[in-house]
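It is worth pausing here to work through a concrete case rather than discussing structure prediction in the abstract. The textbook approach is simple: state the sequence, then state the predicted structure, then interpret. We follow exactly that order.
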Amino acid sequence: MVEIKRIEPTKSSLKRFTQFQIDLYKGNPYYVPPLISDDVNTLLPSENPAFDFCEAAYFMAYRDGKPVGRIAGIINNQVNKDHGHNNARFGFIDFIDDEEVSAALMKAVEDWARSKGKDKLIGPLGFTDLDHEGMLVEGFDELSTMATIYNYPYYPQHLEKLGYEKESDWVEFLMTVPEAIPERYARVAEIVRKKFGFEVLKYKNRKQLKADYGEALFHLINDAYAGLYEYSKLSDRQIQYYIDIYLGLLNLDLVTLIVDREKRLVGVGISMPSMSRALQKSGGRLFPFGWYHLLKGLKGKNDRVDLLLVAVKPEFQSKGVNALLFTDLIPHYQRLGYKYAESNPEMETNNKVQSQWELFENRQHRRRRSFAKNLK
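Step two, the predicted structure:
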């Protein structure tokens, strides 16, 4: 018999909630664990500013007193208002290969969503787009990244049996870093530079980057991603939160800003050394030795770089700004010894983004999906 318990949002209970996933995937060579402290802070209402406009409920499944599954129910009131929806989300979902368990977990969130008057349940999604989203449906034998969900192949099978259907897909590409900048990229970059008066801006000091463009960077993300599936606009408090968390970690050689003649931000490309192997070695913990593996991942030798973020002002999308970004970034990739670049998830319908990879040797190596089920 499966017992479902609602989990109170305390640090101790959320650590157990997060640890379940790490235990479930122990020994899996493709799974990349989160930092437990990061996930706990994301799930804590007292820590995550997304709770200014979100609400959530957490559930765990037990059999004979042993945890066998977990799930979060989330309502993003801002997205519902902005997009005219009345949806609830599910996320942070993991379970053993047992249909009784998956059915009990989904029922718990469905009942919670109905009690809140919601019409549809979609996911897996987080509170915002900076959380992990999309259930893996292809690429189970590919090393995951720190920015994405890994799950066993049986997950989507269970959801489909429970009446969930495809809502949207993301695709991911693995590119080979070229030995030279593609001629077309270099040519387009020069045209864009001259036509619009754009210039590449690099920083050596993180504090100065934060002061000059920290807020502008996240406002640009809001503008560039506004039309994407279920995008949750970042609030001013979230922007300050993410500035403090992320900008201090970046290798500034891998951060490229594009500005116009008035020094206004029109494009940004942010990359980061792949932290997948380092996170695997850390087991999701900073202490006692996890910090060493993470520091080594940031500073040590690595043959893979993650393209965390590319954002361009909507009025300049498809006008060659990406070429300007990558003509700056590729030489840094080469110098640092990167052989491969991970695109991370892109909407399968986002042809603007995917067209930029055509000049590189690439393969689409993962696909992930958002599922939906009507509740009425």
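Step three, interpretation. The first helix runs from residue 11 to 24. Residues 287-293 have pLDDT under 50 and may be disordered.
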